[in-house]
Amino acid sequence: MIKTNLRAITKGTDHIEVTDYFDSRLPRITIPLNPMKSAQANMDEYFRKHRKYLAAEREIEPRIERGEHRIEQLRQEIRDIEQGIWTPPTERPVPQSADAPVRAAIGKTPHTADQRRGPFRRFTSTDGLPIYVGRNARENDELTFGLAKSEDLWLHARGTPGSHVVVRLGKGTDPPPETLRDAATLALLYSDLKKSGKGEVIYSRRKWVKKAKGQAPGAVIVTQEKSLHMTLDRTRLEALKSRST
């Protein structure tokens, strides 16, 4: 409606009255405007807000559905408890510490759960995206330079030994904010910063991660990196562990 009335808007105008042709009753409505912006800039701002709304709607609706599904599961557990037929869920294997796989590599037997689950720790983000976590230097190398694609997101705790983390992304897509925080949480968890429970996590596209020549497997050089300061969030961790495979 602003677009069809651009010529009627002058800079300094804080609103415009237009006919709503999308309503069969054709009502007159008032649209607020920023008087400091031109007609074109006001229109562009409304389009920007609309795109942001659509993006948020795509992310929020699946999360609401998952939340409602979880609520129903909990209600069913309450009913089972009241009827005396509740049984505790099967416990998942406790993830190994970051250095456990290294000990296995020098002669000790790997945890049988890791053998069953195949290469890499695997999680699903809040937004349903796959997250892979290396268990040792060899897996870090295989994950980053074997499995990961150029546009995938790569993460690592800054300045400390730890796992490489990769988020599978579609071409030309950016990681949703919650997925980024999920992956950064895992990078922090599976690093030497775990004990402190907080620290900085760097991230970049996989294409900006290169092998460090002459260094041990897993050693890399990262360019065009960004960073997040993270604190381990128990609620987020429990949600991620419930979606691990």
Could you walk me through the main structural features you see in this protein, from its secondary elements to its overall organization?
- The chain is an alpha+beta fold and 245 residues long.
- The protein has 2 domains: 1-89, no CATH class; 100-242, no CATH class.
- It contains 6 helices and 10 strands.
- The strands form 3 sheets. A 6-stranded antiparallel beta sheet has the order 3-4-6-5-7-10, with helices on both faces.
- Mean pLDDT is 83; it is low at 91-117.
Q: Please provide the count of β strands.
A: 10
Strand percent estimate: 15-25%
- List the helices and strands in order: EEHHHEEHEEHEEEEH
| DSSP helical segment count | 6
Rounded to an integer in angstroms, the radius of gyration calculated over CA atoms is 25 Å
Helicity, as a percent range: 25-40%
Category by helix and strand content: alpha+beta
Total domain units = 2
Shape by Cα distribution: flat
The major sheet is characterized as:
6 strands, antiparallel
- Widest sheet, order of strands: 3-4-6-5-7-10
Overall pLDDT level = 83
> What is the CA–CA distance across the termini?
50 Å
Spans of at least 5 consecutive residues whose pLDDT stays below 50 are: 91-117
Topology of this structure?
Elements: E1 15-19, E2 28-32, H1 39-83, H2 100-105, H3 112-117, E3 121-124, E4 130-133, H4 137-147, E5 153-157, E6 165-167, H5 177-189, E7 198-205, E8 209-211, E9 220-222, E10 226-231, H6 234-242
Antiparallel strand pairs: 1-2, 3-4, 4-6, 5-6, 5-7, 7-10, 8-9
